[in-house]
């Protein structure tokens, strides 16, 4: 084992400070007694209490959650289908064009995506609200899901699908019973990616949201323009903890899976 | 060959036998590349048929066309008299054992074997009985609950076999089934495969690049090269009576001598092959005309080596020992003739090596009979 040098310690400290100091300050001030964000006046949880009373924030949170769940689910279904066609569909006319078009929204400035969707919704006379945000988020998250899933499908042993067909599956059954369970981890991470993208999107949502529905990022952004309130610190702290719990759970599960796979491999060698 | 008793299994010699599989003028092209070139071939029921050839010879393409994963560009494939053109892979009475085994990693050994039976909508009891039977056949009852990654390579191979036989297909395709096993296990498994083939009465078509494997398991072998069948025959005929230089060279070790026929008289040819060498006299069934360019192929074990000129030998040549390959039970001697041609002779080591009468640089005589080799047309 190498000894921990001063150089390593310093760079580690600086790196983590750079990443987490802003968040740490935010978390500390969310427990501040004072209404002034920059003056510490003792520990209190009153801002959390007030947050729970704030209808506008709670509404926005509820809208955001619904939009994120629905749009990421739709994006996962569509993105997985698109990835499957692109990787497995063989060569068909216009394949290169299609695959380019699926990935184009990845590099498209969000402002342009948002604006074009806004024009479309106005054009077809769709009232802006939850539905339009869901549609918009599905559109832009779909390509991310498709990238994640197709990278898994490329390394997927095609003979597994052929074996399923050979044993009497229709192509759809082969996908449902063999391909999907095996690529499930990629599909789930695609869903999570779409979910977080939708959760923190401000630009596209602000184009497609209407007076009837506001998402949390829009709400936070507009309240901050009137001055940072400790309530927002409290809200942000809650969001940070949710994300942290999610990440920690995911890493524990994957570590456990790796340990189990290693144990299996050892067991297989013994037999 | 038994004069009486059980008839020999040879439906290919019976003009009335109906083939189970028929390739009729099948051509398969991938873009500009011709993988299968106008191929016609019959395979009979209960046969253990081997497609043998180097990689890229089209043997895997033929198997994939039988399974339905590829469609012929031209020509037709019949299984049991039925044109397979419009039949999807999942509707064919064919199952395949994949080279990579293609076991479903998310399912247990039991569920892998049951997979095909479940698709047929069989009852629970029926499935359970059949899976038990299959597990017993491949001796994996203890491992039914394991996942594929929890068992060894040899066990995976047996699961793949059990899964592909579970549905009692008319035809089982085996794509390099033993490629991933080590030599000892391979040999055992070859005999196990033959045993299972005989017990189940299924027609097996095996793809392999390993000629020893093909010789061991197959009732007939098709030797392929560049999308064409070079010869179809039983293993002994392929070895003893190759039809062309490619087959002679591909199967086993051979001395190929190029020459020109001089005298031809009822089934006997004389071949001039080198300045200063006595011409080769050989028996042949082929219609050889005098002056034709021919190849003479003779297996090393049919060439005798001796310290003195053998009195009664028809074909004989003198040379010196260039190399000796000691294989334990056998030794192969490379004898160089004065014209530079090397003749390989293989002898059984019936005595201990210290008693061997020849060593490097010794002058020796090689000899062979008129029926020992084959005369091949160019």
What does this molecule look like?
- The complex is a heterodimer of chains A (271) and B (378).
- With 271 residues, chain A is mostly helical.
- Chain A has a domain of 173 residues: MetI-like (MetI-like fold).
- Chain A is built from eleven helices and no strands.
- The radius of gyration of chain A is 23 Å and the shape is globular.
- Chain B has 378 residues and is an alpha+beta fold.
- Chain B has eight helices and 20 strands.
- In chain B, helix 3 packs across helix 4.
- The mean pLDDT of chain B is 89.
- At the A-B interface, helix 7, helix 8 and helix 11 of A face strand 6, helix 2 and helix 4 of B.
What is the topological layout?
The complex is a heterodimer of chains A (271) and B (378).
Chain A lengths: L5 H25 L15 H8 L1 H34 L6 H13 L2 H14 L6 H25 L3 H9 L4 H30 L2 H6 L7 H10 L4 H41 L1
Helix pairs in contact in A: 1-11, 2-11, 3-6, 3-8, 3-10, 4-6, 6-8, 7-8
Chain B lengths: L20 E10 L2 E11 L4 E5 L6 H9 L6 E6 L2 E2 L10 E4 L11 H11 L4 H14 L15 H13 L5 E5 L7 H18 L2 E6 L2 H7 L2 E6 L2 E6 L1 H6 L4 H6 L4 E11 L2 E5 L7 E4 L9 E6 L5 E3 L8 E12 L3 E7 L5 E7 L14 E6 L5 E4 L1
Parallel strand pairs in B: 3-8, 3-9, 6-7, 7-8
Antiparallel strand pairs in B: 1-2, 1-4, 4-5, 9-10, 11-12, 11-14, 12-13, 14-20, 15-19, 16-17, 16-19, 17-18
Helix pairs in contact in B: 2-3, 2-4, 3-4
The assigned structural class of chain A equals mainly alpha
What is the largest interface, and how many residues per chain? Answer: A-B, 24 and 30 residues
Distance between the termini of chain A: 35 Å
- Assembly of the depicted chains: heterodimer
Average pLDDT value of chain B? 89
CATH-derived topology of one domain in chain A: MetI-like fold
- Main sheet specs of chain A: none
The Rg value of chain B, from CA coordinates, equals 25 Å
Key features of this structure:
heterodimer, A: about 270 residues, mainly alpha, MetI-like fold, about 0% strand, B: about 375 residues, alpha+beta, Rossmann fold, OB fold (Dihydrolipoamide Acetyltransferase, E2P), 2 domains, six-stranded mixed β-sheet, about 35% strand, ATP-binding (chain B), AAA+_ATPase (chain B)
